[in-house]
Specification:
The chain has 151 residues and is of the alpha+beta class. It is 29% helix and 32% strand. It is built from 3 helices and 6 strands; from the N terminus they run αβββαβαββ. The strands form 2 sheets. It has a 3-stranded antiparallel beta sheet with strand order 1-2-3. A hairpin with a 2-residue loop joins β5 and β6 (142-150). The chain is globular, with a radius of gyration of 15 Å. Mean pLDDT is 82; it is low at 1-22.
């Protein structure tokens, strides 16, 4: 399987897809790509690449994968889009599709999202997908909101 090419994404830091600066892009994205493949090999699911229909350009990723949170294995729904695709509905559409697959296709009992409180756009996306109740937890030494939706 060939590794995909990615758009430049001056994104915020995150445990799985840290901020990328010029010169760091290829090694970090290869590491992320390898992690995605290992998730599929170990669990049968993981992040999906998101493409813009009109151009075929890679928009970002969205998917579910196991994530240890406070000593418990959770199924985390994660998403990240290149900045030029923010505020266009891609994240909401992707999250809804992944949620449908997680509950209908994978028959998962629950899915969580982990979001930094100051990332308002991600909070809105999660809320549109049905995540409403949360609790504050420490995740990778940062305070985050842990939302959960059950089937």
């Amino acid at each position: 399987m060939d590794r995909p090419t990615y758009p430049r994404t001056p994104a915020r830091p995150s445990p799985r897809a840290p901020a990328i600066q010029d010169g760091e892009q290829k090694p970090m994205l290869r590491q992320f790509y390898d992690w995605c493949r290992s998730s599929y090999e170990a669990h049968g699911f993981g992040p999906w690449a998101l493409q813009e229909k009109a151009s075929g350009q890679l928009v970002g990723f969205c998917g579910v994968s196991p994530e240890p949170v406070e000593g418990q294995q959770e199924i985390n729904l994660g998403y990240r889009l290149a900045r030029q695709f923010w505020h266009q509905g891609f994240a909401t559409e992707a999250v809804r599709g992944v949620m449908d697959y997680a509950f209908s296709g994978l028959a998962l009992e629950s899915v969580v999202v982990i979001i930094e409180p100051e990332h308002h756009a991600s909070l809105r996306v999660a809320e549109k997908a049905g995540f409403s109740d949360y609790r504050l937890v420490e995740f990778h030494d940062r305070p985050v909101r842990l939302y959960r939706v059950q089937r």
